[in-house]
Amino acid sequence: MTPALEISHLRKVYRSGTVAVEDVSLTIQEGDFFGFLGPNGAGKSTTIHCITGISNPTSGTIRIFGVDAVANYREARKLVGLSPQEFNVDPFANARNIVDWMGGYFGMHSAERKRRVDMLIERFELVPHANKAFRELSGGLKRRVILARAMVNNPKLLILDEPTAGVDVELRMDLWRYLQELNRDGTTILLTSHYLEEIERLCKTIAIVAKGRIVRNGPKEEFFTEPGGLERAYLAATGKAADHVAVAAK
Ligand code: ADP
């Protein structure tokens, strides 16, 4: 079966000379919930930017369901939904329009768009908020709008960059439920996070990234057969002090 995502020897050096991604190779099978865990500055967002065409890789290849993400950018991009770390929206636009405009970006026709937007507004329990300006919404509702927007093109691969950063515990649990439902319904998910608990709870496969390289990668169970579980593996992989992990896991 063609993997959902295949990254081979990705390297990204920014113009400033920063080597954000040293050498990343990974494969995500269709249906997986893949956790990309690592400290700030490890290269997670840059990897996502390369997958979604926001940045150009310096070298290496990326294939999304077999489609080359650089040479065949448009076709590859249609297969992906992206929930970025930063809210890159017009704060005065309402939730419905934010989702709808992304449908326009993907060239969806208006009847299809309307059907899809109505369904997503319903699914993410945004009906009472659909006509409110984005800036008026709480942090958790904003995240739901961004998630609905990421799903507008019915992507086979959903990429979430720190989706619960700054979201309180209750709303985080809501988001986790939505993500688990999407995965159960067949969407392959790549999630970046530095919350160990989030990765542990949601993901089937885990990769730990540090300084632009994958230092561990395997099925979740592998991380829990050892004493200390994921936290210990994270410490060993990243070389961080224990108090750093306690903060990151909060
Ligand atoms: P993470 O998502 O794991 O926190 P990033 O991919 O954001 O890591 O960052 C990796 C490294 O690349 C960091 O040193 C960061 O400062 C640097 N970096 C990120 N974006 C840019 C950019 N646009 N230009 C220059 N350096 C960048």
List descriptors.
10 helices, 250 residues, Rossmann fold, alpha/beta, disordered C terminus, 38% helix, six-stranded mixed beta sheet, 2 domains, single chain, binds adenosine-5'-diphosphate, 10 strands
List the helices and strands and how they pair.
Blueprint: E1 5-13, E2 19-28, E3 33-37, H1 44-51, E4 59-64, E5 67-68, H2 73-78, E6 80-83, H3 95-105, H4 110-123, H5 139-150, E7 157-161, H6 169-184, E8 188-193, H7 196-202, E9 205-210, E10 213-219, H8 220-224, H9 229-238, H10 242-248
Parallel strand pairs: 3-8, 3-9, 6-7, 7-8
Antiparallel strand pairs: 1-2, 1-4, 4-5, 9-10
Helix pairs in contact: 3-4, 3-5
Adenosine-5'-diphosphate is lined by residues 14, 16, 18, 20, 38, 40-46.
Outline the structure in words.
Helix 3 (95-105) crosses helix 4 (110-123) and helix 3 packs parallel to helix 5 (139-150). Helix content is 38%, strand content 24%. It folds into two domains: 1-79 and 156-219, P-loop containing nucleotide triphosphate hydrolases (Rossmann fold, 3-Layer(aba) Sandwich); 90-154, no CATH class. It has ten helices and ten strands. With 250 residues, the chain is an alpha/beta fold. The strands form two sheets. Strands 6-7-8-3-9-10 form a six-stranded mixed sheet, with helices on both faces. A four-stranded antiparallel sheet has the order 2-1-4-5. The protein is globular and about 50 Å long. The chain has helices spanning 44-51, 73-78, 95-105, 110-123, 139-150, 169-184, 196-202, 220-224, 229-238, 242-248; strands spanning 5-13, 19-28, 33-37, 59-64, 67-68, 80-83, 157-161, 188-193, 205-210, 213-219. The relative contact order is 0.17. The structure holds adenosine-5'-diphosphate. Adenosine-5'-diphosphate is lined by residues 14, 16, 18, 20, 38, 40-46.
